[in-house]
């Protein structure tokens, strides 16, 4: 169930002193992508300051619910029923993360899933910074056709053996991260580190237990089917009319439509909650009516950033948006 292996390797002699002293390359497989989904397997490759592998660890996790998209991760209810609960592996997982920068491909997702699991277990994940390998590949200007892990792996000649298996995905990422880190060091590139803020409390809606809903559900798929396992979170409709676009140097105004794109240091849903609580309309897509786009990567090629350019929509980063949220102008009576 648990695996722990240790390896050693040589490292370059010169290294930027400002770079982190260690990394934890992480991959988690989950029951889905929503905020109430659970981790079903996790892997960590610990790397030293120069990206050399120190050891690796892997575990299955009983999510206490339907396993979700079995056709993707291959982990059925029968396999997971005898696995440890997250709270039973939380201490060992934390030991692997402690004092290191969490590295993942689309790191905000892995971090959010980990933070939620620790909050459920009434503990705190010992992670203070994360590094997304998608963001790092952009900083390095790698000529990738897209930002999938398989494309990053192919660029560095890393062979994938079992896609969507946490241990192999973490291995592939660790092997691709090492040359990325070396290229960054050689070029004096700033690492795209973001702050991690652990959740301190959590409340889940009731979910079906493993072995209950899965029985008689056709191979443990339960209520999940392709195309239907990504439930979205709904907020109350903003009660204020849209006053138009944000203007640089002025205040945000209640009713403005705000969209978000890319990784954020504050968990995306918490940031969106703050915006909604301030009286702003949180938009899930870009249109000509969007008042403002918030992104830490304005040079990315995401659809929202591209549309913002096309529509002339103002763009600010997360830090600036946080300042604006402190003084939102009330809507017109």
Helix-strand pattern? EEEEHHHEHEHHHEEHEEHEH
Radius of gyration: 21 Å
Query: Number of DSSP strands?
Result: 11
Note poorly predicted spans.
6-12, 206-232
Beginning-to-end CA distance, first to last residue? 61 Å
In terms of quaternary structure, the protein is single chain
Which outline best applies? globular
Strand fraction band?
15-25%
| Average of per-residue pLDDT values | 85
Main beta sheet strand tally, sense and closure: 7 strands, mixed
The structure class reads alpha/beta
Q: Tally the helices: what do you get? A: 10
Strand order of the largest sheet: 1-4-3-2-5-6-7
The helix content, as a percent range, equals 25-40%
Q: Could you walk me through the main structural features you see in this protein, from its secondary elements to its overall organization?
A:
The protein is 30% helix and 17% strand. By secondary structure, the chain is of the alpha/beta class. Strands 1-4-3-2-5-6-7 form a seven-stranded mixed beta sheet, with helices on both faces. Strands 9-8-10-11 form a four-stranded parallel beta sheet, with helices on both faces.
């Amino acid at each position: 169930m648990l695996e722990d292996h240790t390896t050693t390797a040589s490292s370059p002699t010169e290294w930027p002193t400002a770079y982190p002293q260690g990394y934890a390359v992480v991959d988690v497989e989950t029951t889905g992508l929503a905020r109430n989904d659970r981790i079903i397997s996790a892997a960590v490759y610990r790397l030293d300051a120069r990206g050399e592998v120190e050891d690796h660890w892997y575990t299955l996790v009983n999510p206490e619910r339907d396993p979700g998209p079995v056709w993707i991760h291959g982990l059925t209810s029968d396999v997971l029923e005898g696995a440890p609960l997250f709270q039973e592996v939380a201490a060992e997982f934390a030991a692997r993360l402690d004092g290191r920068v969490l590295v993942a491909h689309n790191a905000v997702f892995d971090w959010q899933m980990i933070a939620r699991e620790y909050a459920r277990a009434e503990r705190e994940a010992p992670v203070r910074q994360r590094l997304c390998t998608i963001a790092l590949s952009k900083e390095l200007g790698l000529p990738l056709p897209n930002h999938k892990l398989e494309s990053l792996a192919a660029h560095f000649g890393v062979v994938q053996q079992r896609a969507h298996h946490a241990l192999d995905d973490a291995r592939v990422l660790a092997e691709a991260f090492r040359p990325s880190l070396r290229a960054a060091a050689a070029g004096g590139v700033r690492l795209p580190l973001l702050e991690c803020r652990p959740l301190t409390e959590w409340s889940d809606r009731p979910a079906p237990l493993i072995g209950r809903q899965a029985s008689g559900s056709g191979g443990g798929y339960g209520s999940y089917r392709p195309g239907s396992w990504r439930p979205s979170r709904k907020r109350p409709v903003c009660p204020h009319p849209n006053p138009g676009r944000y203007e640089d140097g002025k205040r945000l105004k209640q009713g403005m439509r705000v969209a978000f794109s890319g990784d954020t240091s504050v968990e995306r849903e918490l940031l969106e909650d703050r915006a909604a609580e301030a009286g702003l309309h949180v938009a899930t897509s870009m249109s000509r009516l969007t008042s403002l786009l918030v992104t830490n990567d304005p040079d990315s090629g995401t659809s929202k950033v591209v549309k913002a350019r096309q529509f002339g929509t103002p763009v600010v980063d997360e830090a600036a948006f946080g300042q604006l949220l402190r003084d939102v102008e009330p809507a017109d009576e």
